[in-house]
Amino acid sequence: MSQNEHILDDEAKAMAPSSRIKYFDMVIDHGKGALLYDADGKEYIDLLASASSANTGHSHPHVVEAIQKQAEKLIHFTPAYYANSTTSSLLQRLADLAPGDFPKKVALGNSGSDANDALIKYARAYTKRPYIISFTGAYHGSTYGSMTLSGVSLGMARQMGPLLPDIVKMPFPDVHKMLDDESEEDFSERLFAQFLEPIENWLPKEEVACVLIEAIQGDGGIVKVPDSYMHLLYDFCQMNGILFAVDEINQGFGRSGKTWAIDHFGIAPDLMTIGKSVASGMPLSALIGRAEIMEALDAPAHVFTTSGNPVCTAAAHATLDVVRDEKLAERSASLGELAEKFFVEEQKKHPDLITGVRMYGLDGGIDIAGKGKADQIIYRLFELGVIMITLRDTILRFQPPLVITEEQLHEAFKRLSQAFEDVAAGKVQIPSQNHIGW
């Protein structure tokens, strides 16, 4: 029995099955940059970046050093009662980094899920309105508030209702839904008419507190909101006293070739949630918003014992240093052009296999002709030493660490090309016991 198998067998005796989405039997032992190593010593190129929570790569030396130094000084005393200099200095740094030339304040948490719970709390408290609008295909987290906001998997709602009241899901303007010969502007107007239909019939706009959207949906398939739709939505919120909020948990910190996905639209949101890569995967999140909104609640409306843990905030300071000093947003944009060129060329080779390519920096959704083929591709990649998963059954999720070297990226392209060739030729068979995906 391999080390991977031994560890997984022991783990299964005590692990709740809801805690992991099943892909392949691997135990990650260590990582460096864009490379991972399993418990048996096999090397993998990481094209997932720990669900986009490792934009700075694995064990970046600057982040490791910051964690070590802070752990020697103070591991934890809850910021719910007393300040510490590491956490306090991070608040203004995050506020300054968020879009918008207006005063902002920050509420820290432990995960993106509770950041989106915070958004619900503050939006309702500030506006004195009950309804929150989110979108189909969204993933906002797994706490009761954030899972109610989400709309990407029945497994996030089945057997757990009733969910949070007064959350309304609108149809996301997913480009997969465009009609033949429909322009992006016409598509945006058609989908926005669908958005308005409930508001014109049963949802009073004066009772809507906030609209929350991902500028680029992550788990929904790496799908960018059409520019015209986003501005229609933003203008509607502005005209009706509705807070406009964005979830940047998956897409922030340079992932899409800009610091924030919303930067592609030139819009400054009233509220923004962040997490994942803010501390290179250490448990930290935040809601950042206009100061007047963030002053709508007082303690203990949103406090946690470990939110703002100084080791995590030290990691966040170091992460922001790396994003700035290594110009990761610009690097993502540049390497993303190479990735887009590669996938477009592969689509030309295999038009019956690859049906669409969307790339925003090192942030790609690659449409595959059917779940079976998509599963075969990521299974073959796993055999070839590449970590990649699917979204919504048929979309390859391409999100490598932003520090991946060009040499590593081209090696990943070589292995991807091999996987596409093997699947197109019918050479890949997945063992029957494998369960792949959500």
Describe the structure.
This protein has two domains: 3-56 and 327-424, Aspartate Aminotransferase, domain 1; 63-325, Aspartate Aminotransferase, domain 2 (3-Layer(aba) Sandwich). The chain has helices at 3-12, 49-52, 61-73, 85-97, 112-127, 144-149, 184-201, 227-239, 291-294, 310-325, 328-349, 371-384, 406-424; strands at residues 28-32, 35-38, 43-46, 104-109, 131-135, 167-170, 208-213, 216-217, 223-224, 243-247, 271-274, 285-290, 354-359, 364-368, 386-387, 389-391, 395-398. Helix content is 38%, strand content 17%. The chain is an alpha/beta fold. A hairpin with a 2-residue loop joins strand 1 and strand 2 (35-38). It is globular, with a radius of gyration of 22 Å. Strands 4-12-11-10-7-5-6 form a seven-stranded mixed sheet, with helices on both faces.
